[in-house]
Amino acid sequence: MAGLEVGDRLPDAVLTAPDGATINLRDYVGKPLVLYFYPKDDTAGCTREAQDFTAALPDFDKAGAAVLGVSKDAPAKHRKFTDKYSLAVSLASDETGVIDAFGAWVPKVLYGREYMGIDRSTWLFDASGKLARVWRKVKVPGHVEQVLSAVRELG
């Protein structure tokens, strides 16, 4: 599987914010970044994950870390998702293949049907922009607490 490995630098990659603005990942260098990829807005697991990150956002802020959720959903869908659940976590749309570059666009099987989809995964970059930790095939319950603990360990 291609993609980033621990120790690699945060790529110079562009995403789209719900309001259509451009987000360059390199702009986050200078503070820790929690970048999480999720399959689809307004589904049970993805909603819970976004709500959990929203609830813990003050703790991530206190630790000096930014949190950004990314899927292939369109910016307008992110706006509806954010409004429907009063989410405070920042979301972005991948319109340029960032998910694939991270190695999070993977083969999946559902009811015997094979397809390509997003591996629910979280990537923690330190303040210098170096990949410090990766969680793959994330199970949502308890995950945000694990990530917050790892952010705090960065010091």
Textual characterization of the structure:
The chain is α/β, with parallel strands linked by helices and 155 residues long. It has a single domain, classed as 3-Layer(aba) Sandwich (Glutaredoxin). The chain has four helices and nine strands. It has a five-stranded mixed β-sheet. A two-stranded antiparallel ribbon has the order 1-2. α1 links the parallel β3 and β4 (66-71). α1 (44-62) runs parallel beside α4 (143-153). The radius of gyration is 15 Å and the shape is globular. The relative contact order is 0.24.
| Continuous helix count | 4
Strand order of the largest sheet: 5-4-3-8-9
Radius of gyration: 15 Å
Helix content: 25-40%
Class per helix and strand makeup: alpha/beta
Mean pLDDT across residues: 94
Summarize the main sheet. Answer: 5 strands, mixed
What name is given to the CATH topology?
A: Glutaredoxin
Please write the CATH class name: Alpha Beta
Outline the fold blueprint:
Blueprint: E1 14-16, E2 22-24, E3 33-37, H1 44-62, E4 66-71, H2 75-85, E5 90-93, H3 98-101, E6 105-110, E7 113-118, E8 121-125, E9 131-135, H4 143-153
Parallel strand pairs: 3-4, 4-5
Antiparallel strand pairs: 1-2, 3-8, 6-7, 8-9
Helix pairs in contact: 1-4
